[in-house]
Amino acid sequence: MTSAPLPDTLWFTRCPVPTATGVAADRGWLEREFAPDGIAVRSLQDAEPGADRATHFTHELPGLLREGGNVPALWARSRGERTRLVGLTWIEERQVVLVAPGSPVRGAAALRGLRLALPRHPVPIDFWRAMALRGFEGVLASAGYGLADARLVDVPADGHRGQWAAELDALRRGEVDAVYVKGALAVEAARRAGAEVAVELDALPDPAHRVNNGTPRPLTVHQDLLDGHPELVTRFLAVLLRAADWAADEPAEVARILGAETGAGAEGVAGAYRPGTHRTLHPDLSDTRLDLLARQEEALRAHGFLPEAVDVRGWADPEPLRQARLRAAAAPARTSPQPVP
Q1: Is there a contact between 125 and 75 (Cβ–Cβ < 8 Å)?
Q2: pLDDT given for residue 336 in this prediction
Q3: What is the distance between the alpha carbons of residues 172 and 72, in angstroms, rounded to a whole number?
Q4: SS3 124
Q5: Helix (H, G, I), strand (E, B) or coil at 22
Q6: Which pLDDT score, from 0 to 100, does residue 163 have?
Q7: Which of 2, 49, 114, 214 would disulfide-bridge 177, Cβ 3.0–4.6 Å?
């Protein structure tokens, strides 16, 4: 236990995807855990307009715990931010390659020689572009090809509203032959565009071909918080473990929470997430997941998204999650607390 003063606020942030953080936030369990200490727990997404939401990507806020895509997390670490990797999840979030209505293109090998859409967003770390690049790279690799076997077409995203809008517009206009999309909103956007599925990445047997921004998805914490108050990090992670335990028995509630988190309707959620997703929210730091994240780091660096190398295993700190598991196991009665009104 440290003698450093307790922080007034713990911040958390998560991507609009299936996460134990999202479940715990919905149920009010994080606020309940730290209220006796006089510590407010606040979501970066729900903060007042003056809050620096860019820290979701930069992780420059020392009191922040983040469960989100690995592209920004690796980028922040690569830039020198003092974060630590404390957990990884692997959740199959529908990844597909779409083609225009009536296109005969089907299967990974059929992408050879095609024009593949690469969006370009005016943001410090263009994770959208990274996702498309890695998605196409995985599909082509599954057929024995590489990115050099296709034509990569820049698609400026300025002026387009909504996820995947620029790429789907380019597909409709015939400027590209294929678009990579993922997640619940992508299912709905594809339906609106009338686009057809050419490749289901989730069906590729080798998980290495499905590695992308959300697979695996990291849990990161700032080193300053871990150094000053390791017990707070342990308690936070223990709440997430209990939330993941609860979610494993509540598929309907998890679907409701996912709808709220993603902003998608029931069709989008059902189409994006496989049955059983509610049982896959537990983080770990297994060798398999660390190896897959290391593959992602190597690819992102090769494509110019990371300014410096990240030693994934050196970045990982297994102790907070180990302590959290002990804490969660010692309090089984707290696995299903009542939600905070």
Answers
A1: yes
A2: 45
A3: 30
A4: coil
A5: helix
A6: 82
A7: 114
Residue 48's pLDDT band, with cuts at 50, 70 and 90, is low
pTM for the full predicted model: 0.92
Map tokens 């789907």 to a residue: 168
Rounded Cα distance between 293 and 280, Å, is 17
pLDDT at residue 17 above 90? no
Using CA atoms, how far apart are residues 334 and 137, in angstroms rounded to an integer?
Answer: 44
User: What pLDDT sits at residue 184?
Assistant: 75
- DSSP-assigned states of every residue in 237-252: HHHHHHHHHHHTT-HH
Report the range of poorest mean pLDDT among 156-170, 249-263, 318-332.
249-263
Asked if 280 contacts 299 with a C-beta cutoff of 8 angstroms, the reply is no
Q: Return the axis-axis angle of helices 251-262 and 20-27, rounded to nearest 10°.
A: 100
Match 């979701």 to its residue by tokens: 56
Distance CA 255, CA 269 (A): 7
What DSSP state is assigned to residue 110?
G
